Amino acid sequence: MNEHVTQNPFPTSLLEEADGEGHNASDNATMGEIISKRFSRRNFLQGSLAVSAIAATVSPVALMSADEARAAGKAGSAFNFNEIEAGVDAKHHVAEGYNADVLLRWGDAVLPGAPSFDPLKQSAEAQAKQFGYNNDYVGFIPLKGSSTHGLLVVNHEYTNPHLMFPGLVKIVDGKVSQNKLSKEQVDVEMAAHGGTIVEIRKESGKWQVVADGKLNRRITSNTPMQITGPAAGHDRLKTAADPTGTRVFGTLNNCAGGVTPWGTYIMAEENFHGYFQGKLPEGHAEAANYKRYGVPEGSYEWGNFYDRFDLSKEPNEPNRFGWIVEVDAMDPTSTPKKRTALGRFKHEGAESIVAKSGKVVFYLGDDERFDYVYKFVTDGTFNPNDRKANMDLLDKGTLYVAKFGEDGSMQWLPLVHGQGPLTEANGFKSQADVLIETRKAGDLLGATKMDRPEDIQPNGVNGKVYVMLTNNTKRKADQVNAANPRAENAFGHIIEITEKDGDFAATAGKWEVLLKCGDPSVAAVGATFSTETTKNGWFGMPDNCAVDSAGRLWVATDGNSPKGTGRTDGLWAVDTEGSARATSKLFFRVPVGAEMCGPLFTPDDETAFVAVQHPGDGGEDWAGHGRPSYYEDLSTRWPDFKPDMPTRPAVVAITKIGGGKIAV
Ligand code: FEO
Ligand code: CA
Ligand code: CA
Questions:
Q1: Where is this region: Disordered (predicted)?
Q2: What is the 345 CA–ligand 2 centroid distance (Å)?
Q3: Which of 93, 95, 244, 415 sits CB 3.0–4.6 Å from 399 for a disulfide?
Q4: How far is CA 351 from CA 139, 206, 348, in A?
């Protein structure tokens, strides 16, 4: 989700982790000066990386010669393609020699009987059969092991009413306002959230949706779900509609996600706080819990029509969101399960890998300034020969929170009731309490406060784990720590973790900063892209990422802008190995106002799916528009470019012209 709230005139559409609605008031060490000293010493000792970092920060001339080196093909990069120019316009762009075809747009048919998309007559009933809004996570579940036929699973994170509905925005004397939403519009929003499961097939080099796919499914904010794991049935999860504390309608704000080794679809619930409004009854026991999560934030208007989103009427409902949801995509009648064992926070994603022991490890980010990095290790082991045997692996296991040491070591601290400070004296009567208030448990364990942890990707080829840290402009100089080394970190960074003995289930490991992001030609930014990185290759705000089958890292960004970085968001190829380490190249970029989500490679590395989220959301700071962007006056009408069609978030399939693996 886009951080640039100040550029957006439509406060009701905003819902932002980055605004610190939740609040980490714990005094977990921000290790301060000792660490900044240590950090400069480490950089000095790190040889080539440090040298290139220093060169990159002080010498624009060095960058120009890097451009020339790249043009001559001397970079030693693992990626072979000619990068595109960074910039801003109304269209998407992909590297020469590649097709970037729009596969699925907001409003496209997913289920049989879906009406064709008519933005002037959109209804909840139509929306519930059509592709939802603001595609974020994209996963691919191969059918019969195929890389050209499978299920595409896509999260629909949130809605932008000012871009979706005609007649909502008014500008009078330069003042922008937005009308209240009708119940019908709220119902469309609820049906546009959630996820899509859709069969797709590649024929003659082009991906197509299988319109009558038997497994096609829409999941929305009203889909019945089951709550499982240690917090299921707890009193704090009970409501008037569900006295059992085990049944809940729908999922909210599904950001990144994952596909498990056994082929289920994981939807992470991120900024759930924004959907709640109203006041808790005076002296209510959940007050401190909700404050830590920023509940209620009241960005959405659903509580005007549905009591469960109003705290004064249904005070426990927020405890039923902020979980990891697992969906059996192979059974369209299956009930999605909220797996409480993986904790409750603003879950960004849930990428997984099978450890040496056969246990499965899920890496989890809590996307808020000063919040934490987590992982979950299953008790049971993955059975590759019996899919059914894996179906409840996510109900039993250990959740850990990361503590990054100032010496480059790290520990994974278990969030287990009764251990350390996680006791009744501190308000935890059971493991359910630990999970419902995961953030508080992390605070008490002394976890390291991070700069907005987003997607975290284990890499099975090189054995490392990559952590995207988007930014944190609120970090003060006395709050820097080794793993978050920049005050007022506007551009974010990427950490590389090496688990102990190469075991993803280990409880200790080492870490390095792979990359401090931002413009390397501005010394004050302190970015550490290699000198091989061109003026097009650097980026800010790493958010989602993918590792292809060759083990190469691809980074998608959220928050680049005409004014901030002179470029839109996009997909960058980032070298992690050898002399090219920390070299980045721009492969694809989105239209103005959009954020880059996905990305995902098919197992044969011949297709990259990317999700273009909230195109046209903004454009005031782009010379091509220069004023607020809303339904009637959009900064882009991507991807259709028809005067009667609004801009539509869409999934794009990138393939090499003539076929073959991408970027080799
Ligand atoms: Fe939904 Fe943290 O991005
Ligand atoms: Ca994200
Ligand atoms: Ca990912």
A1: 1-28
A2: 14
A3: 415
A4: 10, 27, 10
Q: What is the pLDDT of residue 33?
A: 31
Quick one: DSSP state of residue 347? B
Helix (H, G, I), strand (E, B) or coil at 382: coil
Q: How far apart are CA 655 and CA 42, in angstroms?
A: 41
Q: Average per-residue pLDDT in the chain? A: 91
Tell me the C-alpha distance between 458 and 496, whole Å: 10
Residues with CB under 6 A from ligand 1: 1, 17, 157, 255, 270, 348, 367, 454
Distance CA 139, CA 150 (A): 10
User: Which atom of ligand 1 approaches the CA of 271 most closely?
Assistant: 1
Distance 78 CA to ligand 3 centre (A): 20
Least confident of 46-50, 352-356, 474-478, 594-598: 46-50
Q: Which atom of ligand 1 is nearest to the CA of 253?
A: 1
The C-alpha atoms of residue 16 and residue 9 are separated, in whole angstroms, by 14
Compute the distance from residue 625 Cα to the ligand 2 centre, in Å. 26
Task: Show me where the domains of the chain are located.
Answer: 3-270+322-656
Task: Quickly list DSSP for 440-492.
Answer: HHHHHHTPPPEE-EEEEEE-TTT-EEEEEE--BTT--GGG-BTTB--TTBSS-
d(CA 451, CA 372): 9
Question: Contact at 8 Å (CB) between 305 and 296?
Answer: no
Beta strands at 224-228 and 217-219: parallel, antiparallel or unpaired = unpaired
Tokens 């933005």 belong to 119
Sign of CA dihedral 352, 354, 357, 358: positive
Give the Cα separation of 414 and 420 in Å (integer): 9
Q: What pLDDT, on a 0 to 100 scale, did the predictor assign at position 24? A: 75
What percentage of residues in the chain have a pLDDT greater than 70? 89
Alpha carbons 77 and 411: distance in angstroms, whole number: 32
Distance CA 637, CA 159 (A): 17
Q: What is the mean pLDDT of residues 425-440?
A: 98
DSSP 72-128: TT-S--S--SPPPPP---SS-EE-TTEEEEEEEETT-B-STTPPPP-GGG--HHHHT
| 8 Å CB contact between 519 and 565 | yes
DSSP 275-295: G-BS-PPTT-TTHHHHHHHT-
d(CA 541, CA 539): 7
d(CA 215, CA 520) in angstroms, rounded, equals: 47
118 vs 23, 130, 220, 468, 629, CA distance in Å?
41, 11, 20, 38, 20
What residues does 336 pair with on adjacent strands? none
Three-class secondary structure of residue 227 per DSSP: strand
pLDDT tens sequence across 362-407? 999 999 999 999 999 999 999 999 999 999 999 999 999 999 999 9
Q: What residue's CA is closest to ligand 1, atom 3?
A: 1
When pLDDT is cut at 50, 70 and 90, the band that residue 171 belongs to is very high
Q: What is the CB neighbour count within 10 angstroms for residue 260? A: 22
Q: What is the pLDDT of residue 13?
A: 33
- The CATH number that domain 3-270+322-656 falls under is 2.120.10.30
What would the two tokens of residue 248 be?
């809940």
pLDDT tens-digit map of 496-554: 999 999 999 999 999 999 999 999 999 999 999 999 999 999 999 999 999 999 999 99
